[in-house]
Amino acid sequence: MASILVIEDVPPVLLSLRIILAGGGHTVTCATDGLMGLRLLTETAFDLVISDIWMPGLSGIDVIGRGRAQSPGTRFLAITGGNPNSGVTPGVANVEKFGAHAVLFKPFEKHELLKIVSALLAQAPAAAAPACG
Amino acid sequence: MTQPAAIPDNESARIARLRMLEILDSDPEAMFDSLTRMASEIFDVPIALVSLVDTGRQWFKSSIGLPGVTETPRDIAFCSHAILEPGIMEVPDARLDARFSANPLVTGDPGIRFYAGAPIILSDSSRLGTFCLIDRTPKKLSTGQRTILTELAGAVSHAMEAREIAANAREAKRQLEEELTAIARRSHLLRATIDSCPIAVTIADMTMPDAPVLYMNPMYKTLTGYDAGEVVGQDCHFLASKIIGAETASMLRRKIGSGEQAELEIVAHRKDGSAFLSRLIVAPVLGEDGEVLACIGLQSDITLEAQRRDANIQQREKMAALGRAMGGIAHEINNMLQPVALLVQDAIDNDRMSAEGMEHMGIVLDCTRNARNIMGDILAFSRPPSRAGEFHEVSVIFKEVLALAIQGLAKGITVNLRIAGPPALIEMNRTKFSQILVNLVNNAAAAMGGAGTLTIQLDEDVLPSLTLPRKAARLRISDTGCGMDATTLDRAFEPFFTTKAIGQGTGLGLPLVYTLVQEMGGVIKLESVPGDGTTITILIPIAKEI
User: Fold this and answer.
1) Are A53 and A46 in contact (CB under 8 A)?
2) Contacts for B72 with CB less than 8 Å, ≥ 6 apart
3) Chain B interface includes A56 (CB < 8 A)
């Protein structure tokens, strides 16, 4: 099973994600803001990072950008409830993925989460070594 | 024997000149008749004529002694011979003259014996006919008489030219009068047009140092309260100062002075001191050398228009603020729904509930899903407008998107599809187009309660506009559902207004469609009769025909 870092500023959301992912057999590490998440990412090699987008301090977009640079082998999943200031269109096609490999719009369902997580993990080896061709 | 006279060398020019006089077949005129009457007396002859030699006849402009005869054939006319002579042609006794002895005018009526004709020669040397004397007994003119006859022919020639000059002058006068009437009519029409213009118009004479007002139309009094008596002849700068203030008036004067046009919206004051918002255009009238001759002022009261404009801006700002607020709310609620969705599902999956608890948890999950859909609508509605930048062939995208939109329709609903119109590109985002169609189809389906006919038409129309009508793709969706009453119709585009049961609709569907159509530069129209169904028409401007 995989090791997953979840970065989310809203505690109940973070908790529920941890329960579901752990229930799916994954090892889950939690961070409540972007900086903390990035620090954990430098210390540990995660298979997957799940990051909220709109957080106080460092935004999810920055976390994903820097995280992917420093940890190219890790997959990134963005989760968002929409832009509180201008509104991002959720649930529609063609929307930018905030720099991540995939995006889920809150509130998503358990099966959606588990499905996308296993899909990302399945892709991971191929995408993790693009330099090797 | 009768010998017809030879045809003069310059015959065609001579005839042309004769016709130009417009004298042939004209009514008798006193000046010619008095000359022939005088000649008859002086020469003591029964017959005196002013004869004009036409192509096939001689025609008498004046005749004494030949009642009822106005012309004779040219081939027997003495005058045809006379016009060939340099001076007077005199025939003392026609019976003894080989040229005329057998002439029916000699052998028969009027029994000519004596003939003397002096050619009528115009100033351009055209010989048109003769002034002639005829007697039924032989005769011979004295030298003095010959002189008088020549003078009489000369007098007739002068009279004819004078007559022609007078006629030309009359014609010229008539033409001038006609032109003047036309000019007067045009100027009257122009004046009437400016008079009835719904814009206040003033014209000032810029060639005078004080630039006096030459004209104001009735609307100017309606707008400003000033009478023509207080305005016309007054310094236009002084007048403008009273209405729009000295500073603006001076600025306009400088612009006009340098030949520029100016347009501004400014608070102006009527004669009674009341204020209004004026849209003022002043334009110079330039002469041929570019000098400023006059200044036209056009003024209208746009107070109401501006109020409506401001109200529209305020409404848009309010909606934008509401949209931002909704975005924030949706973000918070989506976060709160997240643990509910995950943990309830997890509890169900892990069988941690009693049977009744499981049922309750199912309801909680359903509610979460509904809440998520509502938040989705709210976020879509609050999203700031953006230009699509995507071009699609209208019938292609229409068919693709429609296939998705009608997928989930109840079995009792028949879909009638008609596509017409030439291929054309429209600028729109696929997702937005699908939001429009899905919302409209779902509304129609809801109105029909699961059974009815849904008619969807795509064809071409024109987007109405005062300035530049554009071709547009027209999409019409008609249902056979319950329809809407006037109150519902009025509020149909209002956010959160819904006729669906609580939990079935957010009241954001039509407002969202309305916003999206507006973003595309299109228009939307709702027509509905309660009990008869609803038709929604959307016009989307065509970017390019292909």
Assistant:
1) no
2) B57, B58, B105
3) no
State residue B489 phi and psi, 5-degree precision.
-60, -45
Tens digits of residue pLDDT in B100-144: 999 999 998 889 999 999 999 999 999 999 999 999 999 999 999
Contacts of B337 in chain A (CB under 8 A): 106-107
- Taking the model in full, what pTM does it have? 0.46
Q: Which region holds residue A99: left if phi is over 0, alpha if psi is between -120 and 50, else beta? A: left
* Nearest CB partner across the interface for B383, out of A87, A108, A111: A87
Cross-chain residue pair B431–A89, CB shorter than 8 Å? yes
Report the domain count for chain A. Answer: 1
Place of tokens 């008095």: B34
- Domain range for residue A120? 3-132
Is B347 an 8 Å CB contact of chain A? no
**Cα–Cα distance for residue pair A18/A8, rounded to 1 Å:** 11
Tens digit of each residue's pLDDT (9 = 90 or more) over A30-87: 999 999 999 999 998 899 999 998 888 888 989 999 999 989 999 999 998 876 544 4
**C-alpha torsion B356→B361→B364→B365, nearest 10:** -140
Contact B342 A94 (CB under 8 A): no
Inter-chain contact B334–A89, Cβ cutoff 8 Å? no
- Cα–chain center distance at B206: 31
Nearest Cα to Cα of residue B58 among B110, B112, B131, B121: B131
Q: Tell me how many degrees the CA angle B58-B64-B68 measures, rounded to the nearest 5.
A: 65
Distances (CA, A) of B162 to A112, B173, B400: 113, 16, 91
Residues of A in contact with B341 (CB under 8 A): 107-110
Average pLDDT over residues B42-48: 95
Q: Does A6 touch chain B (CB under 8 A)?
A: no
CA distance B97 to B94: 5
As for the ipTM of the complex, it is 0.80
**Phi, psi values for residue B230, rounded to 5°:** -90, -10
Residue B441, phi then psi, degrees to nearest 5: -65, -40
Q: Do B383 and A109 touch (CB under 8 A)?
A: no
Through-space distance between the first and last CA atoms of chain B, rounded to whole angstroms: 92
